[in-house]
Design brief:
14% strand; single chain
Length: 633
């Protein structure tokens, strides 16, 4: 930010309500720079508070405003914010409250091309939640709040108690959520977290002790069981096992070298038989080729026999068809097939119905050509099959001779090399036994070492837990709370002094008696704030909230850096309102430079006119009518 202002935290730049056909915008910028003070002015019922509530909704509130002019029109709300100086867009649907928000880098007029990141609202402590994102830009991600003996993750909704002062807390008696004790406790813790004086050390120690004690008991139980198992197996001591492993590895290496040397000697001593090996390889190839040729011829003979039988069957059928004409006379009709009148011999037509009584009689078909072709093929097949069957005995004899030659060559090779190889085989068997024994010894040593190392790791783990638990007990027995208590007392004193200064500036009666108690309750005129009048409670609530905001900002704490004030003129007169605005202007121009305050006011003083970002008139002739400016009924 400009003028050296800090960029950490959150700044609200623009709000857009998306409706069908058009958007409704509220801009909190002056040019491209976020305004220090933004005033939303307008008559009652024009949507001033609605703007702050939609800002809160985009920052994770459970629900959004449901006014009649909102729900039928608006379908989504987008908040343009700066997160640690970088513009982001946070969008949530309007209608049924959504459980997610969509976050992306960019501006409303230049959303960029990045895909929106879907962030759930619950659980707030999840790393991917909207709360975790917002808290990370306030340096508060991962902080937990204590709740009795348990802890809950800090939520950005808790932090909004210090960023948003709604009108119903201004003049009431529930400024610190006194009606809900747990909420009041959390508010106090949130203040401590923001000022970095929260002290959950004792609770964290207790939680760690409760977690570590059962873990230590389980580790000791496992150690006892493992010790008993190792003692029963008796693998030996670590030094003995390591020495056995080294000896076994040395033996394995020696065996490998001896086998390699032995193989070299065997190859050198058997080189004289190279001619016999070559003769054996040639005989084996010849035997293999002869066997293949024999198998091929026998397969062909089987197939040709089946094919010859098929052709012989075809020839027989053709002969039968040729002889059918001589065996069976032509068909003659004795009765008319149409009218069943007896036929007159020699007449070709029926005398009654003139039907044709002389059927076609062409005789049997002529298949002499097919018969000759079939007989020729049968003859050729028979001749080829006879040649195959005649050559098979010769091929079988040749295959048997080649097999005998290969067998004799193998026997000659074995006989020639047996005297040279046999001594090496005996030595190789001896080396194999030595290698197996060494490998078994190495495995036993490795298994024993694994048992011993596992037992040592369990013992070391149990001892580490024992030492850590003793240290936690010692720390819990003598905790040092002096520095934390002094830090909190100093913060409460600073808050009380600023609260008193603000009331004195606003000319509150007996302001010098004002103070903030240790539980953060504001006092005035010697009494806690609920005893004041409605107007007095409004001033006290404003002074207390502003004191927290100003001290947090000036001390570079983890406050987000913005404050929303809803209708601060409640129960106040013009002079008090004017003093409030003068105080805001002076602080934001000085020690509060870089912070942001947004105020809704029905009639801000003239001095605040330069800070008015929008003024709703509720008059048709003076736009804008209201936030939803075309809803003028």
């Amino acid at each position: 930010m400009r003028n050296g202002f800090r960029a950490h935290g959150i700044r609200i730049r623009r709000l857009r309500l998306h409706a069908d056909g058009r958007p409704y915008d509220v801009d909190f910028r002056a040019g491209e720079v976020t305004r220090p003070l933004s005033v939303i002015a307008g008559a009652f019922g024009t949507g001033k508070t609605t703007i702050l509530e939609f800002v809160d909704y985009c920052l994770g509130a459970a629900d959004h405003p449901r006014h009649p002019e909102i729900t039928p029109r608006v379908r989504a709300a987008t908040l343009e914010v700066e997160l640690s100086g970088t513009p982001h867009l946070i969008q949530r649907p309007v209608g049924e409250p959504s459980a997610h928000a969509y976050v992306t880098q960019g501006r409303l007029d230049d959303p960029g091309t990045a895909t929106p990141e879907r962030r759930p609202l619950r659980p707030a402590g999840a790393p991917e939640s909207l709360s975790s994102l917002l808290l990370s830009h306030c340096k508060l991600e991962g902080v937990r709040l204590r709740d009795a003996a348990e802890t809950d993750p800090l939520s950005f909704r808790n932090l909004m108690w210090l960023c948003f002062l709604p009108h119903d807390r201004l003049d009431g008696r529930d400024l610190l959520f006194e009606s809900v004790p747990m909420k009041q406790l959390k508010l106090s813790q949130v203040v401590d977290v923001v000022f970095d004086i929260h002290d959950d050390h004792a609770i964290e120690l207790g939680r760690r002790i409760r977690t570590l004690e059962p873990e230590l008991a389980a580790a000791e139980d496992h150690l006892r069981t493992a010790t008993a198992i190792v003692a029963e197996l008796a693998p030996g001591e670590v030094a003995e096992l390591e020495e056995a492993a080294r000896a076994a590895k040395t033996e394995l290496a020696a065996c490998a070298q001896a086998v390699a040397a032995l193989d070299g000697l065997a190859r050198a001593d058997t080189t004289f038989a190279e001619d016999l090996r070559e003769r054996h390889r040639a005989a084996a190839r010849t035997a293999r080729d002869a066997s293949t040729l024999l198998r091929d011829r026998e397969t062909q003979a089987v197939r040709m026999t089946s094919l010859r039988a098929t052709y012989a069957d075809d020839v027989a059928k053709l002969i039968m068809l040729t002889e059918a004409g001589a065996l069976f006379p032509p068909l003659r009709l004795d009765v008319c097939p149409s009218c069943l009148t007896p036929a007159v011999p020699g007449e070709r037509r029926c005398a009654t119905c003139q039907a044709d009584l002389d059927p076609d009689d062409a005789g049997p078909p002529d298949v002499s050509g097919e018969l000759r072709s079939a007989r020729a093929r049968l003859t050729e097949l028979t001749r080829y099959l006879d040649e195959l069957e005649a050559g098979i005995p010769r091929l079988r004899a040749a295959a048997e001779r080649a097999q005998e030659v290969e067998s004799r060559a193998a026997a000659d090779l074995d006989a020639a090399t047996a005297h040279a190889v046999t001594p090496y085989l005996a030595q190789r068997d001896t080396l194999a036994r030595r290698r197996e024994e060494a490998a078994a010894a190495l495995q036993r040593a490795v298994d024993g070492l694994r048992l011993r190392h596992g037992l040592r790791e369990r013992a070391d783990g149990a001892e580490t837990m024992r030492v850590a638990l003793a240290a936690l007990h010692a720390e819990a027995a003598a905790p040092d709370r002096v520095a934390a208590a002094a830090g909190r007392a100093a913060v409460v004193a600073d808050l009380g002094a600023r609260y008193r200064d603000i009331l004195r500036e606003w000319r509150y009666p007996r302001a010098e008696e004002a103070r903030v108690a240790d539980d953060l309750t504001p006092w005035a005129r010697g009494k806690p704030y609920p005893a004041a009048s409605p107007g007095g409670r409004t001033l006290i609530a404003l002074a207390w909230q502003l004191a927290l905001f100003e001290i947090a900002w000036e001390s570079r704490s983890s406050h987000p850096g913005f404050l929303l004030l809803d209708s601060p003129r409640k129960n106040l007169g013009p002079k008090e309102v004017d003093r409030l605005y003068r105080h805001l202007e002076a602080w934001l121009a000085g020690a509060g430079a870089g912070a942001q305050v947004i105020v809704t006011d029905s009639a801000p003083p003239p001095a605040a006119d330069p800070d008015v970002v929008v003024r709703f008139s509720r008059r048709v002739d003076r736009p804008p009518y209201a936030l939803i400016d075309d809803e003028t009924d």
